[in-house]
Amino acid sequence: MQGQKFLVTGGSRGIGRATVLSLVEAGADVAFTYRSNQEAAEEVVAEAAKLGGGKVVSFLADAEDYAQAKQTIESVKEALGGLDGVVLNAGINRDKLLVMMAENDWDDVISTNLKGTFNYARASVYGLIQQRSGRIVVVSSVSGLIGTPGQVNYSATKAGQIGMVRTLANEVGKFGITVNAVAPGYIKTDMWDEMKEATREKVNLTIPAGRPGTPEEVANTIRFLLSPDASYINGSVIVIDGGLSA
Questions:
Q1: Which InterPro entries does this UniProt record tie to the protein (predicted)?
Q2: Which end of the chain lies in a sparser environment, N or C, as judged by fewer CB atoms within 10 Å?
């Protein structure tokens, strides 16, 4: 992936962070966005520099704002000298049972996860069409395939992302662009660490692999989908859940 140029949204932690580091290690130049935690973003840049791979730059940006997404894409192209693909990873959760879910819990998740995906896909796709090549990978979730109690809002956005991926793949495949999604299950990120130990133990019993996945395991799949080796994979959803949804 030497010399390839990518943007990862939500790249300061979890799967996004692991993806940035994986791509840099493979020789790509990478830009990533972060919503508020500048310290975490600086740590990613510093860690990436130690890998001795490609260039890394970070941008403070809100996924919910289309104008900002459009400007960020232009800034990324200027900083990296082009753009070969995007990883649409930025997302939040506001988990509650539907009967207890406030309207803003719904609106915030829809706006960040679903509209944010639209914003960056829309802002980047025209440039990819012009160059007649590119990769788009959306970080969805197994929650968009099987549904998870307490995640009506989150599951709706993740299912929506999968619908967007399959439709957009049909729209832009003729331009040499692939559009795919990964659907992780339980992954050892901040959300996993915030669970009570007893809850984690119960969850592990539902996973055939007997454990949560790691951000690196998801990042490796994303890197593959961005690579030339995945040139004939388009409109697919790659489930990474240790067998949870099998």
A1: KR_dom, NAD(P)-bd_dom_sf, SDR, SDR_fam
A2: C
Radius of gyration of the chain from Cα atoms? 17
Q: How many domains does the chain have?
A: 1
pLDDT digits (tens, 9 = 90+) for 78-136: 999 999 999 999 998 999 999 999 999 999 999 999 999 999 999 999 999 999 999 99
- Please count the other Cβ atoms lying within 10 Å of the Cβ belonging to residue 36: 10
Is residue 94 classed exposed, middle or buried when 0-12, 13-18 and 19+ CB atoms within 10 A define those classes?
A: middle
For residue 245, being part of any structural domain is answered with no
Q: Which residue segment(s) compose the domain that 160 sits in?
A: 5-239
Could you report how far apart the first and last alpha carbons of the chain are, in Å?
32
Q: How far is CA 122 from CA 34, 91, 180, 202, 238, in A?
A: 19, 17, 15, 40, 22
What span, in angstroms and rounded, lies between the C-alpha atoms of 173 and 237? 16
Task: Please report whether residue 82 resides in a domain.
Answer: yes
User: How far from the centroid of its chain's Cα atoms is residue 72's Cα?
Assistant: 16
Average pLDDT of the residues in 151-177? 97
Query: Distances in Å between the alpha carbon of 164 and those of 5, 87, 185, 220?
Result: 23, 14, 20, 23
pLDDT, tens only, 132-156:
999 999 999 999 999 888 999 999 9
Identified catalytic residue from 34, 120, 154, 186: 154
Q: What's the CATH code of the domain at 105?
A: 3.40.50.720
- Catalytic residue flag (residue 154): yes
Is residue 32 classed as helix, strand or coil in its secondary structure? strand
Question: In which region does residue 94 sit, left (phi positive, over 0), alpha (psi from -120 to 50) or beta (all else)?
Answer: beta
For residue 205, the surrounding DSSP H or E stretch is helix 197-206
